Amino acid sequence: MSRPAEKDILNVSMEEITDIRRVVEESDFPPRYKAILLTLIEEVVTIKKTKREKQAELERIRRMLGPSSEKRPKNDEQTAKEGKKPPPARNHGRHGAKDYKFSDTIEHPHQKLKAGQCCPDCDHGTLQEIEPRKIIRLIGNAPIEAELHKPARLRCGGCGKIFTAALPPDVSEEKADASANSIVAFFHYGMGIPLYRLAAIQRVMGVPLPAATQYEMVEMLWTKVVPVFKALLHQAADLAPGVR
Questions:
Q1: What is the pTM of this model?
Q2: Can you give the pLDDT at residue 179?
């Protein structure tokens, strides 16, 4: 069965539903038919209410994560039509070290020389440590990476009891870390990337992450974020009673 076109969908307001309910209650329909119609009306009201609440919650989360879409920058031709001069190009897409948030900073000491040694060129000066060079290297990784933890196990040769090493406090038994749940939610709701597309990227990068698993990860994040968000709303209402 094909999905109905949007123009064929009849939008009904809550006021109209209330009027329809009153007309049905006052009609001469048989009691059985009247009960069926009233039940169907209540189902429609419940569906519309649930949809509104979900859309409101999703909109709040989108606002928390940031804008879900970006405006396309105007090209030089559009700028010229508006009577404005195009801004001069700056750096031609180049960025300095201060523009990056590095995942790791690796120091490389000199292989032969150290500060305080005599200069091998002039034989009378002393080498002094100065600010190192900065070489930026971009490393490609999957949006979600996988770690393999292998707690050691020991088995007694006499009684057969197995002793397993405990995991560190920051490593839980849950497969998805909170940071992974946040990344999936940010990519989907913040950047507008469909779950199936992120699943395809992960599959190619060797870290499978099906769309169904992503949905469960977002749902897990939802259960933890929404109570905090509602608590913040209550605190803001207490601080500013006149603002709703």
A1: 0.49
A2: 87
Query: Who's near 187: CB < 8 A, 6+ residues apart?
Result: 143, 193, 198
Closest to 182 (Cα-Cα) out of 173, 191, 172:
191
Our CA angle for 163, 148, 180, nearest 5°, is: 125
Rounded to 5 degrees, φ, ψ at 160 are: 85, 5
Q: Which residues contact 65 (CB under 8 A, 6 or more apart)?
A: 185, 186, 189, 190
Residue found under tokens 């290297």:
137
Q: Which residue has the tokens 């032969």?
A: 112
For the chain, where are the alpha helices, taking DSSP H only?
Answer: 14-26, 31-65, 76-81, 178-185, 195-204, 211-239
Mean pLDDT score, 11-26: 80
Cα–Cα dist 165/151, whole Å? 5
CA distance 119 to 173: 55
Task: Find out whether 175 and 181 touch, Cβ atoms under 8 Å.
Answer: no
155 beta partners: 162
CB 221 within 8 A of CB 181: yes
Residue 184: CB atoms within 10 A of its CB come to 26
* Helix, strand, coil % in the chain, rounded to nearest 5: 45, 5, 50
| pLDDT tens digits for range 86-108 | 666 565 567 776 776 776 788 88
Secondary structure letter of residue 187 according to DSSP = I
Q: Which two tokens stand for residue 169?
A: 């406090």
> What distance in Å separates the CA atoms of residue 102 and residue 105, rounded to the nearest whole number?
7
Alpha-carbon radius of gyration of the chain: 31
Paired tokens of 239? 């601080």
CA 89/CA 202 separation, integer angstroms: 35
